[in-house]
TrEMBL record, chains A, B:
<dbReference type="Pfam" id="PF07729">
    <property type="entry name" value="FCD"/>
</dbReference>
<dbReference type="GO" id="GO:0003677">
    <property type="term" value="F:DNA binding"/>
</dbReference>
<dbReference type="InterPro" id="IPR036390">
    <property type="entry name" value="WH_DNA-bd_sf"/>
</dbReference>
<keyword id="KW-0238">DNA-binding</keyword>
<dbReference type="GO" id="GO:0003700">
    <property type="term" value="F:DNA-binding transcription factor activity"/>
</dbReference>
<keyword id="KW-0805">Transcription regulation</keyword>
<keyword id="KW-0804">Transcription</keyword>
<protein>
    <submittedName>
        <fullName>HTH-type transcriptional repressor CsiR</fullName>
    </submittedName>
</protein>
<dbReference type="InterPro" id="IPR008920">
    <property type="entry name" value="TF_FadR/GntR_C"/>
</dbReference>
<dbReference type="InterPro" id="IPR011711">
    <property type="entry name" value="GntR_C"/>
</dbReference>
<dbReference type="InterPro" id="IPR000524">
    <property type="entry name" value="Tscrpt_reg_HTH_GntR"/>
</dbReference>
<feature type="domain" description="HTH gntR-type">
    <location>
        <begin position="3"/>
        <end position="70"/>
    </location>
</feature>
<dbReference type="Pfam" id="PF00392">
    <property type="entry name" value="GntR"/>
</dbReference>
<dbReference type="InterPro" id="IPR036388">
    <property type="entry name" value="WH-like_DNA-bd_sf"/>
</dbReference>
DNA sequence: AACAATTATCTTGTATACAAGATTGTTGAC
DNA sequence: GTCAACAATCTTGTATACAAGATAATTGTT
């Protein structure tokens, strides 16, 4: 099943906004975008609506749509929410995860460890994502899983930044170990708590996130 | 600032889907809807996209959009997720809620009690919603607040049903009292736990929800 | 009569044309 | 020179026209 042009444009625009190609408050000109993508305004408008719906842009009627890069406050809020979603996933996963799921999780964590040992931050970034997605899956709640995936996707660019900092990868990995253990033990509260603080932005991580915003 | 026609249509369509006017899997015909609303296909298409984004309909490329009424499984999943979101709000609210916020919460609960005493289920439904929204607000996290509001809105029709059952209103109210108390005391864990089980669908409530689905 | 293939029709997706509100620039009055 | 009102232009929102894929129907063959 082929994607329609509007969806392709939406994805590309999403990437552009993620990359910081557009400054906060910048207007997304339908006509310019239409020319750029060599299409009419119609698919561009559909794509813009998608961006608006996903919160990456704001629409002011009869004025246009403007990109909405999250500021420090909103970023913290999103990470806070992500932490709670992950805690919720962990809570369920501790009770519901199958033996196979636990195996997949362990395997995913092995790949994370591998990346750390090689000092490959880029690879850790990818494998870490997969690790967390196994937990979402383990919650055995498709709706919650989708919500978690949605927010994970939006926070993607900022997670990436944090890994650049010295010692972060190793610490993250050691937290993973504790998470796997708690899930294997079926300890709901422990799993939820570790995951919450694993994802939450506190102390050191706060400075790192803020530092990343300027670069 | 005036709404555009497409948004009005989106809202009306949303209401129609909520009311169960459309069966699950039914196709939303662009042309028929355009005729019905006395408008061209363009605003209808925009409205349909909104429905798809909010999860109330599914789009199959080159086939059309079809309404997606949640089945029992998805409903349970949504309630589970809602419970976790509310627990998260409670967790934050216990620490962050201002004196003014606590007052508003108490006032909202007074109105709930009033509705119970009058046996006015419809009014309780409204005031209960406001009560919970005060908690979302009290979490002092706009992003989380919006997520909670979004899901609360989607679950609206099903919450309404549950209140029809004998004793449910009184029990709900007594749980409210405990919630207010925990928040006032700043007891994060207690607030989170009570809210979770207050919202979650377990035991009796499960049967009630299922019963409501058939009517 | 049943099945396959081709054609007709219908529906979505995209392009273009038009309408209406918003912004900006100019002109005129004080 | 400044402010206000009007006009010109630009941009969004809606309507219509066209293109392409999907479904249904009809016809031909076995």
């Amino acid at each position: 099943m082929e994607l329609k042009r509007a969806d392709q444009i939406a994805e590309q625009l999403e990437q552009l906004v993620f990359k910081g190609e557009y400054a906060d408050g910048e207007r997304l000109d339908e006509i310019k975008l239409a020319e750029h993508f060599r299409v009419s305004r119609t698919p561009v408008r559909e794509a813009l609506q998608k961006l608006v719906m996903s919160g990456m842009a704001e629409q002011i009627p009869r004025r246009g749509v403007f990109v909405r890069q999250p500021g420090p406050v909103e970023l913290i809020e999103m990470f806070e929410t992500m932490a709670e979603l992950e805690a919720a996933c962990g809570r369920f996963a501790a009770v519901r995860m199958s033996e196979g799921g636990l195996d997949r999780l362990a395997k995913a964590n092995d790949k994370c460890r591998d990346a750390v040992e090689r000092g490959d931050a880029e690879r850790y970034y990818v494998e870490n994502e997969a690790f967390h997605q196994e937990i979402y899956r383990g919650a055995a709640n498709s709706f919650l899983q989708n919500e978690a995936l949605r927010l994970q996707n939006r926070l993607k660019p900022y997670r990436r930044m944090q890994l650049r900092f010295r010692g972060r990868m190793a610490q993250s990995l050691s937290e993973h170990e504790a998470i796997v253990e708690a899930l294997r033990a079926g300890d709901t509260e422990k799993a939820a708590n570790i995951l919450r603080s694993h994802v939450a932005v506190q102390g050191e991580k706060f400075q790192q996130l803020m530092a990343g915003l300027k670069g």
